[in-house]
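Deliverable D4.2, example record:
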Amino acid sequence: MATTAGASATSPPEPLSALLAEDRRLLEACLAGSNGAWDSFVARFAGLFAFVASRSARQRGLTLSAADRDDLIADVLVECLRNNATVLRSFAGRSSLATYLAVIARRIVARRLTDVARESAPRPPESRHRRPDVMATSETTQAADREHVESLLRRLDTDEARLVRLHHLEHRSYGEISHLTGMPLNSIGPALSRAREKMKRLEHQPRAG
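Output generated by the structure prediction step:
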């Protein structure tokens, strides 16, 4: 009993150390590409990213739709994997992984919300006396833009194109997409982000043939 008490006195529980060890195991599994590791990562931290997104929006007086919040979560997840998972590899273990990722998520979400606010800023009202040819040009441009998007979609894989079309052209929620495609809910955001990145690359590549 004395030995046990002495051991307890000199070796108190260290929950943070245990948590850091768990964080390290999860990170190593993700970086090694272990089966199911990324799904475990998403399941563990998607709620944290959702909280950061909602709180950051409220601080800016913004209201997020479910789709907006899901897009922000996807942005954070994609950033975690960008450049050979630099964000994950940079974790030094001086805090819990959740604390580290919350800081990363706040930066990404803040940048994204700033971009959205800039894009949605009021523009000077257009003249009431717009000429018919100007109106026609605007409609022609919109049609051309739509055709450009469709041409990019035709260069994606079938599943990627369907995913982009459902979310961005038909404005389907992640829940609806999951129901229609059978995709796990937590995989839709990252898949959409990868498809968008691919479309950006395709815009700068000449079409074969």
